[in-house]
Amino acid sequence: MAEFVHITSTRAAQRIQRSGIAARSFGGAGGRGVYCMPVLPSFTLTYQWVRELRRWKPGVLVAVQLRLGDDEPVSVGHYGAPPRRVTAAEAVAVVRGLDDPRGYEVFVPRTITAAEVRRVRAVPQGVGWRYVPGAHGRRPCPCPGCVPRGGYKVAKLRRRFPYDEPPRPKSELMARLRAAGTADEIIDVLSELGRGRRGGAEELAYLVDHPDPYVRDTLDSVLQVYRGREARRLRQRLQDNEPAAPDPDISCTLRSPVE
Question: How confident is the model at residue 138 (pLDDT cuts 50, 70, 90)?
Fold first, then answer.
């Protein structure tokens, strides 16, 4: 018989002992089932998923110990790679034979019955890894994909490790703008100027009459974050200098063949 542990919330413990573990999770190869981890000689590796699952499951977590037949079909693999279809005994052997089994998991593609549940035990809530295996000592990635908004201490983490680079000072951006030789370079600098309020807009007046329409459009968007009468005046000049759209009736007449 192969032994595994399934991490779940304390609220579900009594229901699991009474009726088993429902197949609610989706496996990497499709279908619903139950995720678990083989019982290993290392306590930390056996319950490695506790700390990571605490990010997603509220309350105190417990470990459900279960026993499956050796020939039970399961899948095993790292959470970031396609799983392998093996038997329960083979899954235990695969994980035990790894030099670093952190991040590995076993998926049982069915419901776990109450008869297969051995017991429910308390586990330390800080055991295991968080975010990714081996993340301790490395700079965390604060992007929305790795750290969802609203999580515990997410705001503090993003202040310490900002996702975006700090904005350049205006003096540096204006120097780059004066040295820009192409429309694309001008647009790149204007886009950085538009990230925040930059004071007076007098230094951008010479771009109102720029021949490239994309430069003028970008300038119009950037001036929306500027304060003062000069910014409003420049935006009005941009709107006044825009060519009027052709009359559709006249365009059709010009495109029609001469009879």
Answer: confident
Are the C-beta atoms of 219 and 230 separated by less than 8 Å? no
Query: What letter does residue 62 receive in the DSSP assignment?
Result: E
Rounded to a whole number of angstroms, the CA Rg of the chain reads 31
3-class secondary structure, 4:
strand
Nearest 5°: phi and psi at 112? -90, 125
Q: Closest by alpha carbon to 25, among 61, 53, 62?
A: 53
Of 221, 173, 217, 213, the closest CA to residue 194 belongs to 221
* DSSP letter (8 states) at residue 69: -
**Cβ 212 vs Cβ 184: under 8 Å:** no
Residue by residue, DSSP assigns 113-169 as PGGGEEEEEE--TT-S-SSSTT-TTS----STTTS-TT-TTHHHHHHHS-SSPPPPP
Q: Is the pLDDT of residue 255 over 90?
A: no
Domains, the chain: 2-122 (3.20.170), 170-241 (no CATH)
Query: Distance between CA atoms of 152 and 149, rounded to whole angstroms?
Result: 9
Rounded to an integer, the average pLDDT of 90-109 is 96
